[in-house]
């Protein structure tokens, strides 16, 4: 339910386009149904592909016979790992797109077919005969760590993946001493589960390889440039020969960060047939085969002194990668940053162990490990406050991060309004103290900490912009950045319109073809508005300089007197001296020695890759906030109903309040859903509830009143002061609800989702 | 027949990519049939349009009844000028896309239909009932100039168009005195005819207007940016809302310079239906309705002194515009430049009168008036030489233009190898003097003079380039320029590859979408390689600077020591110090504070718009050359057979000899065809031979041996010394053949085409 939002402005500056609630610039196209997603791509002569997956979670492949599949009318290609040469996928290069020798999960791709119709492809896939020798599987990561566990990758001689993430401020002996001497300690085991990102648009690709050796991929990837690079390696062709086109993207939430087997498989089928090949998941396939959120087992303890100051925090996390390593296990990095950085904690230790099992391999999802670890951290904060007899809000405020501080890992916190966020959350939820929410009701709190100025996990975290102005004043911004549906293109347009003093409809954002647009690392880590926005702002400033120089000549006034506003440039000392924006552009272009206005910039945030000791300031800004949840627990059924969520955000200046509120609503709903509803139920590594009838997603009826508060302290590094916001809505929600459930019932839930049976 | 080419190099510099015969970079796509032309554009939900044209060359429209057309199944829209509001077209704004009140030619568009199929559209067009009151027409431009002639546009009170072009070096009295005192004078009336450009790809458009008010036009225009501007004015929408996409273009030859009625009509039908509408001419429609080459009646006299020095030239030209003014009459400007500028003539007068008739309106075509006027000029040169008893080649050499001179109109000739070209032509054809070619054979010569460094007929003659380098060393050149099929994209790629020392396959040229590419005035006047090439070269130099700075750091050497060659940058003083091009790019990108490489430039040639007195240096370079034709005239049938053409060109440095030779071959074939075969036969303003069975185009069998000679004197203003070449092959051919026919038969042919009956 929409309750509007509150903005707490910590600055006096106001703008004309920035900070206004404007409709998304791509909204019109979507509203009229004219937006085209990957499943809408129809190319002449197109084939349809289907994949045959393993019958067993762990087995040797003895024989594949595709003969009957070839005989199905309309079949144009059948491929297996035995007849196409594809490189391995992933950072660890542990993942062949088409499996040979053995299968390691029921998702494993054994063969694929391209046919004239979907039906023929389905029929052919079913006609493929595969003979397996089933092997014992391992589905519990703690079991998998045991020396006698069945090996998922025999050649490794262990299921423990060579991806240990460890950071500590001091040695174990010292840390143990801190815990022993502390006034209060809480220690527990938490467990978070698998869920599916469930974007409206399912995973899909249309691959088209032509006779000149050029491959065009229509894809809903989040990172077209890394995708192109990876795919080139897998296919053994130069990435320069791959054109990546992104139609409109119907949500992604982290699911589109990697190259997945369907991509090289579709490409291989197109290379065989020289025809376009479409491979788009059905909803059932999406639930079964799209990478789910990284599950985790978290052993955590936290210590505080008598005055309520945090002394130490320790987290040992086990991450089940599934059968191969995709982006999921890298959630450990975010877990580490939050373990070491949320609140001021002098002594910290974080350790993550990544384990292979015969489960589905995992991906990253909105928040990227942060909802998972915050579930543990913020329940411990709640328990510690109780143990110390302190108000949980007060306890958090005492320990809250402060501006201009550095976390143990070297993250440089500049702006930080966490204390104000906590106060606002308490005020808006009507907090009066523990047990005061009414019968069967409870209120819980949780704070969050996340990157808000990019995240340098690749050698460049930059984004390029090419900005041009046509002779009629239309500004085209070709950005490297991908809008996943979040409204980042609109934010970019607002930034450019503001800087050039033109109306929003005079700005067009283009980013569908990675062979044309400048480079960008991809849309993740809430970075689009910050990084692409800064890039667009730099470009607008560069164009403005050209325009100002010409306007100064034209109006015979020094450039510093010029104001760009209302599609006009005028002299602030004499507003009658003015020239329309579009006329100015034509004056610059249509004269001897004139020029069109096209500028190019590249913005790479001033950040550092983390070193081998996990030290380094990986983001140019950080975001903070707090949520309060009001819940009611039915005393009979133990059914948890969330009545209200207050979500308070320090994301710097809010560029488009309506869109920002939408992001928060979406985030909260996703967090709520993760906490109470969504769960991929696995049996022997197979999702047994792969349909929206069994896999619960909240409707509007399950979604509570959401009150959004923005504490708007402009960040000096952000475009017009903005920081990231895309993910944070969902980060504290599981913890806030769990704390509210505790307030209502006295029962701590350490395992997600929260179900009546655990109460 | 292919005889190879000769290159006469007037420079010692040699390059690695430039100057080499390389296949066209778009050749592969065309060879495998994967290139998509406008007729290949298929959009979901597309409609097909047909136009109803006037039954009479001149008539009042009394009544249009579209009722029956609406009843044809599948019809989705029927429009007439009475129910859609469209602005007028053309520089004189004399042309409504859909006619109301009256029709002025049989091409006049009266109504149009969009339907689910072409057949339904045809049926519906035939079902439209139009009642006319026929009016007396005028089809002869000299008749049309008479005061009592029927008026094509009554409101003008005259058929003489307000477009007089006149230039003279002195007053008529003085000029007449010069002619009177001259040792030799020739004076005559010449007449040149209508022909069709006959590109493989017919005129066509797919228009798609969407619910957001955005119009996409897939078109084979030559000038997408002017097209967008004009079309916006006609449709009454901002050009910024129009996206112009150019699929591959199957030739144009000047036919695509304007917006034509089919463009706004298709747009109007799409605006009515909100569906894509395709309107592509059949070959019959192309022959009937595409703008033909500008015909002309030329009254010319030339005078020389006893030593064979030209004294004066005077041309009075009548140009039949047809019913409306499109680009055709502007051929007068080129005729003027050649009349005043070809050979050194101290006294010149040129005057063109443009006249409305009820004939088809005219367009411009390869050479743009130059083949027409050269037909007169070079026959008079031949006749004058004879009158003076001089060798025609010697006579031409005496009068030939020289480098670093200025023509009476202020055209600044820099490089000029005309004398060498004439000598080579004589040598290669085996010239031994008049009447020495053998029985029934003759040899004729003609020289030419044309712009070769752009032609400033618009407020900017510029072209923008955006050049980017991907992380794998692929250079993408987004050019404003359109490749009409001539190979200009390949020339651009060669220029960039040369400058960056990379192989040609590492360069990709992109120019299909005018909403992305930088501005360019359009491809005409042989300007693409010169102007877009210079623009691309500037961009490559800018990128090279960035690369050199980084390489200098990397290799610890001063930038001036660096050589870019073989996809490597190395230190010329120590070639072991080197770095691969692609690796260098990654070094620049993937570091802290790194950047992608994307540069933007705009090149506008240093030229002048001509002033009201037709003075001004409109091109940055001029091209010269000469042709010699060897013909045989059957003494019985008088059929003229051209046995050999020697075509000698001073186009500066030749960037791609094979492609350049192809351009010359095409030009010569087109000139030959214009001279002997092609003729649109008009009866009462209607083309009566609108089919390739009746409209003669030469096949390989009719095409003579063509010997191409390039006199390669690099021009300092051109990219690597290149000047324009696209049009010149066809300019001197009619005159050369006519002079050869005279040498063979003693008969001067003053009217084109040369037919047996005129001999």
Can you give me a brief rundown of this structure?
Two copies of one chain form a homodimer. The first copy, chain A, has 759 residues and is α+β, with helices and mostly antiparallel strands. Chain A is built from 17 helices and 31 strands.
Can you offer a commentary on this structure?
Chains A, B: Keywords: Molybdenum, Oxidoreductase. Chains A, B: Residues 32-136 form the Aldehyde oxidase/xanthine dehydrogenase a/b hammerhead domain. Chains A, B: InterPro entries: Ald_Oxase/Xan_DH_a/b, Ald_Oxase/Xan_DH_a/b_sf, Ald_Oxase/xanthine_DH-like, AldOxase/xan_DH_MoCoBD1, AldOxase/xan_DH_MoCoBD2, AldOxase/xan_DH_Mopterin-bd_sf. The structure is a homodimer of 759-residue chains. In chain A, 60% of the residues are buried. The mean pLDDT of chain A is 96. By secondary structure, the first copy, chain A, is α+β, with helices and mostly antiparallel strands. Chain A folds into 3 domains: 39-135 and 202-249 and 256-289, Aldehyde oxidase/xanthine dehydrogenase, a/b hammerhead (Aldehyde Oxidoreductase, domain 3, Alpha-Beta Complex), CATH 3.90.1170; 296-456 and 610-758, 2-Layer Sandwich (Aldehyde Oxidoreductase, domain 4), CATH 3.30.365.10; 462-603, Aldehyde oxidase/xanthine dehydrogenase, molybdopterin binding domain (Aldehyde Oxidoreductase, domain 4, 2-Layer Sandwich), CATH 3.30.365. At the A-B interface, helix 6, strand 20 and strand 26 of A face helix 6, strand 20 and strand 26 of B.
């Amino acid at each position: 339910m929409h309750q509007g939002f509150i903005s707490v402005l910590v600055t006096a500056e106001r703008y004309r386009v920035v900070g206004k609630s404007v409709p998304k610039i791509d909204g019109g196209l979507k509203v009229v149904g004219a937006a085209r997603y990957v499943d809408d791509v129809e190319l002449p002569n197109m084939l349809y592909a289907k994949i045959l997956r393993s019958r067993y979670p762990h087995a040797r492949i003895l024989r594949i016979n595709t003969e009957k599949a070839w005989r199905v009318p309309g079949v144009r290609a059948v491929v297996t790992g035995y007849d196409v040469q594809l490189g391995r996928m992933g950072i660890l290069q542990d993942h062949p797109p088409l499996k040979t020798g053995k299968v390691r999960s029921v998702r494993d791709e054994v063969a694929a077919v391209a046919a004239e119709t979907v039906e023929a492809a389905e029929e052919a896939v079913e006609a493929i005969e595969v003979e397996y020798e089933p092997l014992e599987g391992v589905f519990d990561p703690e079991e998998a760590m045991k020396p006698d566990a069945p090996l998922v990758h025999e050649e490794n001689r262990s299921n423990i993946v060579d991806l240990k993430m460890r950071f500590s401020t001091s040695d174990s002996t010292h840390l143990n001493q801190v815990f022993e001497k502390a006034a209060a300690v809480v220690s527990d085991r938490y467990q978070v589960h698998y869920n599916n990102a469930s974007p409206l648009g399912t995973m899909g690709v249309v691959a088209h390889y032509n006779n000149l050796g050029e491959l065009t991929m229509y894809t809903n990837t989040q990172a077209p440039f890394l995708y192109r690079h990876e795919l080139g390696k897998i296919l053994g062709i130069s990435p320069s020969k791959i054109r990546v086109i992104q139609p409109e993207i119907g949500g992604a939430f982290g699911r589109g960060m990697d190259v997945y087997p369907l991509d090289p498989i579709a490409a291989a089928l197109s290379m065989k047939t020289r025809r376009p090949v479409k491979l788009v998941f059905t909803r059932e396939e999406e639930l079964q085969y799209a990478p789910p959120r990284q599950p985790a087992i978290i052993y955590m303890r936290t210590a505080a002194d008598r005055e309520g100051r945090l002394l130490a925090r320790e987290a040992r996390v086990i991450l089940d990668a599934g059968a191969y390593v995709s982006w999921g296990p890298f959630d450990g990095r975010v877990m580490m940053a939050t373990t070491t950085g949320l609140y001021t904690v002098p002594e910290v230790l974080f350790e993550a162990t990544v384990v292979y099992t015969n489960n589905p391999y995992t991906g990253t999802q909105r928040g990227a490990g942060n909802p998972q670890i915050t579930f543990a951290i913020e329940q411990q904060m709640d328990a510690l406050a109780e143990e110390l007899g302190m108000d949980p809000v007060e306890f958090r405020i005492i320990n809250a991060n402060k501006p201009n501080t550095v976390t143990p890992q070297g993250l440089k916190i500049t702006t930080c309004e966490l204390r104000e966020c906590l106060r606002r959350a308490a005020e808006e939820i009507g907090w009066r103290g523990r047990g005061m929410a009414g019968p069967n009701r409870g209120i819980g709190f949780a704070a969050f900490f996340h990157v808000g100025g990019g995240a340098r996990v690749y050698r460049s975290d930059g984004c390029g912009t090419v900005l041009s102005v046509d002779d009629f004043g239309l500004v085209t911004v070709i950005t490297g950045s991908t809008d996943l549906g979040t409204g980042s293109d609109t934010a970019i347009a607002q930034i450019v319109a503001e800087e050039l003093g033109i109306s929003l409809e005079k700005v067009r954002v283009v980013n569908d073809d990675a062979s044309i647009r400048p480079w960008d690392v991809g849309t993740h880590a809430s970075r689009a508005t910050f990084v692409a926005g800064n890039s667009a702002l730099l470009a607008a400033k560069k164009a403005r300089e050209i325009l100002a120089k010409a306007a100064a000549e034209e109006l015979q006034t020094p450039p510093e007197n010029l104001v760009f506003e209302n599609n006009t440039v005028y002299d602030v000392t004499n507003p009658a001296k003015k020239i329309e924006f579009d006329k100015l552009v034509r004056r610059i272009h249509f004269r001897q020695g004139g020029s069109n206005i096209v500028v190019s910039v590249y913005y790479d945030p001033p950040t550092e890759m983390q070193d081998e000791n996990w030290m380094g300031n990986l983001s140019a800004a950080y975001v903070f906030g707090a949520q309060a949840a009001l819940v009611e627990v039915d005393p009979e059924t133990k059914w948890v109903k969330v009545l209200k969520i207050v979500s308070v955000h320090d994301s710097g200046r809010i560029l488009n309040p309506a869109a920002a509120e939408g992001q928060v609503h979406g985030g909260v709903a996703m967090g709520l859903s993760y906490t109470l509803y969504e769960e991929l139920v696995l049996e022997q590594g197979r999702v047994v509830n792969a349909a929206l009838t069994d896999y619960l997603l909240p409707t509007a009826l399950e979604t509570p009143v959401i009150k959004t508060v923005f504490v708007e302290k402009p960040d000096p590094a952000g475009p017009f002061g903005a920081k990231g916001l895309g993910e944070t809505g969902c980060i504290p929600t599981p913890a806030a609800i769990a704390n509210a459930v505790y307030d209502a019932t006295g029962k701590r839930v350490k395992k997600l989702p929260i179900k009546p049976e655990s109460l």
